[in-house]
Amino acid sequence: MKQLQVLLVAGTHGNEINGIWLFDEWKKSSFLINTHGIKTFKVIGNPEAKKAGKRYIHHDLNRSFKEESFIKINPLNCERTRASELVNLYGEAGENPCQIALDFHTTTASMGSCIVVYGRRDADLALASLIQNQLGLPVYLHESDQKQTGFLVESWPCGLVVEIGPIGQGLLNSRIISQTKLILETLMEQIHEVKNLNLFFPNKLIIHRHIKSIDFPRDEEGNIDGYVHSLRQSKDWQELKKNDELFCKLNGEIIRFEEDEPYIPVFINEAAYVEKNIAMSFTKRELWNFKKEWKQALIDLIHQK
Amino acid sequence: MKQLQVLLVAGTHGNEINGIWLFDEWKKSSFLINTHGIKTFKVIGNPEAKKAGKRYIHHDLNRSFKEESFIKINPLNCERTRASELVNLYGEAGENPCQIALDFHTTTASMGSCIVVYGRRDADLALASLIQNQLGLPVYLHESDQKQTGFLVESWPCGLVVEIGPIGQGLLNSRIISQTKLILETLMEQIHEVKNLNLFFPNKLIIHRHIKSIDFPRDEEGNIDGYVHSLRQSKDWQELKKNDELFCKLNGEIIRFEEDEPYIPVFINEAAYVEKNIAMSFTKRELWNFKKEWKQALIDLIHQK
Questions:
Q1: Among A33, A236, B11, B72, which residue is least crowded by beta carbons within 10 Å?
Q2: Is residue A53 domain-shared with residue A191, that is, in the same domain?
Q3: CA within 13 Å, CB half, A209
Q4: Exposure of A48 by Cβ count < 10 A (0-12 exposed, 13-18 middle, 19+ buried)?
């Protein structure tokens, strides 16, 4: 059996710096974080953007991991180049092949901590289940979004995003750092347990399945002319029912939620999503039965069968 | 007597947009905001930066109002040019001379609402006293800071900054908009009362006098290697006593407040101040007797004697 290697990424967005702090702390005092002897590689996702104090230089790095991007290095696109580089260094067929990628993010939305999975890969769902079972975190299943693709973790056989908020861009915050550390350690501990076949998977997984994102209200010229209603602001994960308030418009009109079935909003008023025309995303909360295939996929991956 | 004219500025920093929203709302429905018949000019301070979604293009506009800047237009400095333009348009000797400037800002720090005065000008202190008497807001006296000069309101005979937080950069927030509106209306109402000589000034003014700003801890290479301690985060306006925790360093060390006299911190972890090497500012809370000269200066100004 080859040695299991795990890629840890922080600063995929250059202005989300709390995970980077944790890596620096860890470098200084290796005892601070317990990885249970599993080999890890800690990298800053987008060091150029970090230096510039920006989310990205040319394109969002976490939308740059598309198959076609890896064909050639493009000197005019810092992020496509970095995506290729990371895959060449730590991808499954790279210099230091990693089987699992964990990508640490922050949000300006009042989401607390959550795990994001991209699509329904068995090993991802198994690992997310283990974390939900340990920490009770919501799991956000991001799928069916044609406008947003090419996420970093998708380039690894198994990968999760950890998303923590609220925190302003470019700021360090003691609470966010502690929460990041807790989730990182829990992830490593759970991977270790699977490695030792000391398994305890839950029967159910609560999934917040992405349905769609909605834009802010806009005027005829395309300018935003409505803000998130006070009853919706900071109410991530709280169920929306028909006629609930969504936005206040410039003309005083209130825009309400008009769907018949309840949705759960997330990423409400996330600063980085204004440019993506996203005021919030809607999810459906679903209770899924844990599947044996998920468990087997994660075991096979970690044991590199 | 010439007509009193008041300059209202929002978006002096292009990513502080809640005041701009209020102006747009007001344009649409003029009854929404009561200015008591006083002539106002509403301007976006830095429209270029607003378009770019940034605090500024070349330099902070609210540090660009220096006498020497007004000598000539500099096409390579968008903000110096804009500062001259605003003074030419609305300055005391401008096309539409305004006697009072009110400048609406937001902060990512948990400051709530406050009034900022730059230096100890009589009319500013009188107007700030009226607002404190109505709304109980803290008044932050910014002075003795050689590194920060050239503030917009200093170019008008009387001028206050309204600062409201916490809110992420570039975001609209219903609470911030409501608070901005309340303070704007209260300011106009109080100016109106002075105009009508219907005066009620308090006997005392509580001032938070700026003492100094402190930087984040840094390593030998100048990189930030400490974050605001969890006991200090979001504790703006709360008194610091000797040995209180200020920062956590990368090496685990806690940096404490070591002065003998108590200070009151403000702008704790303000995102825009990281580039200014400011982790927070220290003030002293002082109770000042209201002075007759302040009142007279404001009356004279508003009545244009």
A1: B72
A2: yes
A3: 11
A4: middle
SS3 for A101? strand
Q: Which residue positions of A form the known binding site?
A: 13, 16, 55, 62-63, 105, 163, 273
Q: A251 at the B interface (CB within 8 A)?
A: yes
Residue A208's SS3 state is: strand
User: Averaged over B104-114, what is the pLDDT?
Assistant: 97
* CA atoms A138, A142, A147, A148: torsion sign: positive
Give a yes or no: residue B285 inside a domain.
no
- List of residues 6+ apart from A304 with CB closer than 8 A: A1, A2, A4, A99
- Domain count along chain B: 2
CB contact (8 A) between residue B168 and residue A271? yes
Say whether the ipTM exceeds 0.85: yes
Does one domain contain both B110 and B158?
yes
Q: Per-residue pLDDT tens for A173-194?
A: 999 999 999 999 999 999 999 9
Of the candidates A28, A29, A248, the beta carbon closest to that of B174 is on: A248
A53–chain B nearest CA distance, Å = 9
**Are B116 and B69 within one domain?**
yes
- Tell me the mean pLDDT in the region B194-214: 96
Closest CA to A302 of A176, A134, A123, A147: A123
Contact B174 A21 (CB under 8 A): no
Domain that holds residue A33: 5-203+290-302
Whether residue A132 sits in one domain with residue A253: no
Residue in chain B nearest A229 by alpha carbon: B174
Distance between CA atoms of residues A187 and A199, nearest Å? 14
Residues of B in Cβ contact (< 8 Å) with A170: 271, 274
Q: Tell the residue number behind the tokens 């089987």, with chain if given.
A: A99
Say yes or no: B227 and B270 in one domain: yes
Chain B CB contacts of A21 under 8 Å are 227, 250
Amino acid A73: pLDDT: 61
Q: What are the distances in angstroms from CA A45 to CA A25, A52, A89, A128, B128?
A: 17, 13, 12, 22, 47
Residue A74: the pLDDT is 66
Chain B (168-187) residues lying within 8 Å, Cβ to Cβ, of chain A: 168-175, 177-178
